[in-house]
Amino acid sequence: MEARRAEEILQSPDTIEVQYQQSSVWIEEVDRGKDTAQVKLLVDGKRIEVPVAALEEKS
What are the residue ranges spanned by the domains of the chain? Predict the structure, then answer.
């Protein structure tokens, strides 16, 4: 995923499924300077920083 799309998802009023390494996540913040995102793993609530390119939008 690109940082621009991650920001669109973050700002969207809709719920859009996003995964990181086959785990559903909630995008909380995007850092375009580092090309990373702060996400919350929905399975356990853990917050981690991941490369935006490693996020996958599910449709």
Answer: 3-57
The two three-digit tokens of residue 23, written as one number: 């785990």
Say yes or no: domain 3-57 is CATH 2.60.40: no
Q: Which tens digit of pLDDT belongs to each residue from 8-42?
A: 999 999 999 999 999 999 999 999 999 999 999 99
List Cα–Cα distances, 34 to 3, 15, 45, in angstroms: 10, 25, 23
Determine the Cα–Cα distance for residues 16 and 57; give it in Å rounded to an integer: 7
- pLDDT tens sequence across 42-55: 999 999 999 999 99
Residue whose token pair is 């300077």: 33
